[in-house]
Design brief:
This protein has about 250 residues and is α/β, with parallel strands linked by helices. It is built from six helices and twelve strands. The protein has a single domain, classed as Purple Acid Phosphatase, chain A, domain 2, CATH 3.60.21.10.
Length: about 250
């Protein structure tokens, strides 16, 4: 990709809103930022819906949850945010997974959702990238790629830099729901991986009740700037909920 020196402007990265499980204060803050700054790029780094009922191995309670409210919230946000790029995440990809189901009603529902999404994203001018380790990578500038993410755990940012970032470049991903920066030694300059905070509300996601990793989640979004065709080395995390005191209440006293 050649450097376009005429490319300048702000960029916003929003990720992992999870439909009707979105963190309202964060979503409102992101939309307000967009309204004020009119960014050149609006990146949705995956999982704009939750689709818990479509998860492989979903519990009876999850399968009983209606999809429509989740879809309505996800699309209300997409139509307000109007992403220039959508990196489909593992939750978004569930309709495609259902195309391989042995149950006809699941295959048909999966195809209906895919067809509807294709039409609606085209209508708002969004370039959509699949949930795919190679094809699901958006290169915004010669020194910046964005993806939903295929790494997890404490070293996700380091692994991201190792696999996706160029020397003196950046790779940014969602998926892990926490802000982090990792560098990987390359010649002639280090590569940097950045993981994004999520924009979902933990209290609305009952299936994470025993997921210890969710205690490390950060809630917010990220902004940056492109100067003379390159992603600037400075960026800002806008954190609306992070590092809260952890403590429970007794079951009985």
């Amino acid at each position: 990709m050649d450097r376009d020196y005429s490319l300048n402007g702000d960029v916003i990265f929003l990720s992992d809103t999870h439909g009707n499980c979105q963190h309202d204060a964060t979503v409102n803050a992101a939309l307000s930022w967009v309204d004020r700054h009119k960014p050149r790029f609006r990146i949705m780094a995956g999982d704009f819906v939750d689709l818990a009922a479509m998860r492989t191995g979903a519990s009876e309670a999850e399968r009983a949850v209606a999809l429509q409210d989740d879809l309505d919230h996800g699309w209300a946000l997409m139509e307000a945010f109007r992403p220039t790029a959508m990196l489909l995440g593992n939750h978004c990809w569930r309709p495609w997974m259902w195309l391989g189901s042995t149950r006809m009603e699941q295959r048909e529902l999966g195809q209906r959702l895919i067809d509807d999404w294709r039409e609606r994203f085209a209508k708002i001018g969004t370039t959509v990238y699949p949930y795919h380790a190679e094809q699901g990578v958006a290169r915004l500038t010669p020194n910046l790629v964005v993806l939903h993410g295929y790494h997890a755990g404490l070293h996700a940012a380091y692994k991201l830099a190792q696999h996706y970032a160029d020397p003196d470049g950046y790779a940014i991903m969602g998926h892990v729901h926490s802000k982090a920066v990792g560098t990987f030694a390359r010649h002639p300059a280090a590569a940097t991986g950045i993981t994004l905070p999520c924009a979902c509300d933990r209290s609305k996601l009952p299936y994470i009740a025993r997921a210890v990793g969710s205690l490390r989640w950060d809630v917010g979004f990220m902004t940056g700037r492109i100067v003379d065709g390159l992603f600037d080395a400075s960026w800002t995390w806008h954190i609306t909920e992070s590092e809260e005191p952890r403590g429970g209440r007794p079951l009985w006293t």
